[in-house]
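Exam prep: given the inputs below (a chain plus 6-O-phosphono-beta-D-glucopyranose), describe the expected output before reading on.
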Amino acid sequence: EKGGFDWFMRKEIYEQPKAVADTLLGRHDENGRLTLDEVRISEEELRRIDKIIIIACGTASYAGLVAKYAIEHWTRIPCEVELASEFRYRDPIVGPTTLVVAISQSGETADTLMAIRHAREQRARVLAVCNTNGATIPRESDAVIYTHAGPEISVASTKGFLTQIVACYLLGLYLAQVRGTKFGDEIASTMAELAAMPDAIASVLEDMDPVLKLAADFAEERVVLFLGRHVGYPVALEGALKLKELAYIHAEGFAAGELKHGPIALIEDGLPVFVVIPPRGRDMLHDKVLSNLQEVRARGARTVVLAEADDDEVLPYADVLVPLPKVSTLLQPLLATVPLQMFACELATLKGHDVDQPRNLAKSVTVE
Ligand code: BG6
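Solution:
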């Protein structure tokens, strides 16, 4: 049933191109307009939405953090992301013009369920992004976008995460279409970029040898840091979470721009630091993170750099380079996360851990 793999997790990592393709399937009508039939909230109502709050736990919350960048950029609706376990205890400002988006692979996570119940009591519209047909969270929501990742067995989420990002992007584009903040051809070009992602992810998966070797080199490490900026920041958080969950290593993800405000004090000789470098583009993001990379390298960090394959500027500062295909900034998390998943999976395997059932964790946590 593991299809020849040692772990469900590894199998599920390799299933990501298909999972993403399946999640994108059938999202157009005959005129090329984006259609999300499962979003059973009228266009009229969607035009009145003045705030979006994404709630989720764990890996799903990092998908939410990625989605915030795209949704705000495309729709110009303010979008917050909140951990489900914090949401209802802070008396959140929620009303009939708030769209609450609950992201949950299992659809059964108690913290997320309690949060959407609270949101509905305040008359918010609730949309679930879920991978499990008929689970409690989608049943208790006004609308649902299903991710079509197929069953995810490994406790640590992989294809669940990538497809959650894709589903949230579809939602963002759909809202932009309904509200007229982005026009047909712009939506079509982003959809075309998304449609190219399964192949891009597959090409990342073809070259996992450097990552496997890295896991062997880092097997004795006690601390690993991850840096990213913009959508690369949640990727850093996810890379760190995977190492905590699977390899039981103390790992932290930081926003690269925050480095100078504290975390740089941690850098010492030989400390492994993963850095997610944004694609080169019109903004300054790439250069800013490049200078963060230089700063940690100058202080002795051993750097693992995830960057566009032809990004020569990073080479002098990379102890190990993990090359990524060229994509736009917003889509890079769909690629950059994959080597980090594999790294954690391999490291935990080398340490003799049960990768699919890490200690103290459960696939869906049905208590608050
Ligand atoms: C945790 C799992 O307890 O629940 C994580 O160990 C997962 O892997 C989180 O990300 C949220 O789960 P779900 O099903 O709500 O996405």
